[in-house]
Amino acid sequence: MKHLSPTSDAARALASGRYRIRKLDTAGLAAVPIPWMREAGWNPGLHDAETFITADPDGFLVGELDGQPIATVSGVRYDDTFGFLGCYIVQEPFRGLGYGMAIHEAARRHLEGCTQGGDGVLENVEKYKQIGRVYAYRNARYEGVKQTPDWKPGTPLSDVREVPWEKIEALDRACFPAPRSAFLKTWIHQADAFALAAAGADSAAEGYGVIRKCYSGWKIGPLFAKDAETAENLFRGLVDRIPVGDAFVLDIAEPNAAARDLVARYGMREVFATARMYTGPFPQVNLDWVYGVTTFELG
Question: Are 88 and 104 in contact (CB under 8 A)?
Answer without folding.
Answer: yes
